[in-house]
Amino acid sequence: MNAGISKIESEILKTKNARAVYDCIESLPIIDYHCHLDPKEIYENKPYNDLWELWLKGDHYKWRLLGAQGVQAVSFAEKEAQTIAFIEKLRLNLGSPLRAWARLELAFFFDGLGVSDPLTELSPLQIWTKANAFIKEKKLSPRALINASNVKYIATTDDPSSDLRYHKLLQDENLGFTVAPSFRVDGLIKSKAADYGAKMDFFKENGCRFFDVGAQGFPNEESLVYSANLITAAAERGFVIQLHLGAIRNANDALFAKYGADLGCDTVDTALDISALNKLLNLITVKNNPKTIIYLLNPAYYYPVITLADAFKNVSVGVPWWFNDHKRGIEQYFEVISELSDITKVPGMLTDSRSFLSYTRHHYFRMLLANYLGQFEDLDSAIIVAKKLSYENMFSLVR
Ligand SMILES: [Zn+2]
């Protein structure tokens, strides 16, 4: 293990038991059951040219620190300037999860660029120059990063109209890991189109295991029956249901008009219709009890939604999503799930990412999990729970 990883582990793992728990889960394979990686990039497997392509291109989790939604680089000079600006921001934002992730990414994928903490020991320009040389020398590519991370399963997020071209091409490759589509219905919820059955069948034929919705204002009374029918059809095909609740999409009209969706313009909604969610859960569980995972963007809803989820079989509240994916958010989640529900039943970490470097966030989650469980002075139980949330519960969703 390199000095950078050791340093980060020693900072997070506070007790002997935490260390002992982490030793049992650190190397478990990664099942990334919800992300926004592009299957085309995995298929083409083009080596990266520079750190900008790896770090900033397409990763809207990182753009919030740049304060420049719609990050677009058109020339090498802009890539360099933007990456250096990002590193300078990282150095100053000591409590940012982006800083914690960046340290792990540089330590894990770049062997720390030869030092134990590049963010404090190297200048931004040195990081840019050394990382670019490392990327060229090691020929870092999507599949190289996936394999280095011991990833065994990747569920991408796909529009029902997709021809799944790249998923089909990937099925013919000898990858050592599975790449499967997920049936993302935000567009359907809006259009209320009725022709989704054949599309679901097509997705299922091509390996789909997950249904997903993240539409603004979902669920609501107005689309309740349509939503319930859609989810029931997915459940009949054996899909796991994922509900991403509480995002306001494209808050900035001018940026949306200029750059389109997914460019950092999404924010946290204050309103979630708990009554509609309750009705929806009744409707979708009336025939069977599909495995359903609810993700909350607004942690203010943990109490009502965790207790509501537990009123139904196979429904749980998933790991902290997006703006909650940070040390305090993850620790808060462990506490509130333990206090209100059954921590052993929740599926564990996913990246929700558009970046192939984000697999280190599974390690970050595992360290925080080991640290949380290690405090209870029951090592045997802690290890059982840690294995469930690091691998076993996710594996049971995709096997
Ligand atoms: Zn997502």
In words, what does this structure look like?
The protein is an alpha/beta fold. It folds into two domains: 48-140; 142-398, Alpha-Beta Barrel (TIM Barrel), CATH 3.20.20. It is 51% helix and 9% strand. It has 20 helices and ten strands. The chain has a five-stranded parallel sheet with strand order 4-5-6-9-10. Strands 1-2-3 form a three-stranded parallel sheet. Helix 1 runs antiparallel to helix 7 (97-109) and helix 19 runs antiparallel to helix 20 (379-398). The longest helix has 20 residues, at 379-398. The protein is globular, with a radius of gyration of 21 Å. 45% of the residues are buried. Bound molecules: zinc ion. Zinc ion binds at residues 34, 36, 157, 352.
- The strand line-up of the biggest sheet is 4-5-6-9-10
Radius of gyration: 21 Å
State the end-to-end CA separation: 31 Å
- Count of the separate structural domains: 2
Beta content: 5-15%
Q: How many β-strand stretches?
A: 10
**Ligands and ions found:** zinc ion
Structure class:
alpha/beta
Largest sheet: 5 strands, parallel
Q: What would the average pLDDT be, to the nearest integer?
A: 94
H/E element order: HHEHHHHHHHHEHEEHHEHEEHEHEHEHHH
- Classified by CATH, the class of the largest domain is Alpha Beta
The CATH topology of the largest domain: TIM Barrel
Indicate the overall shape: globular
CATH architecture annotation name of the largest domain: Alpha-Beta Barrel
